[in-house]
Amino acid sequence: MCDPNLHTALEDLRKTDVARHCWIEALCINQHDWDERSREVKSKSKIYALADRVVVWLGLAEPDARHP
Description:
The chain is an all-alpha fold.
């Protein structure tokens, strides 16, 4: 079952006219395996350096949040 926040992010970031390749840390790294997480954290700089674009999802805005 997909995390509700992840589901919302994927819907919001979806493009219907072009394919997107996504690295979703919560899915790509076993969050309960401390050894795996430690190894993967070391490779994050390489992942981000090779990315054409990085998008960070912080969740839905609160109703009283100000947008520039």
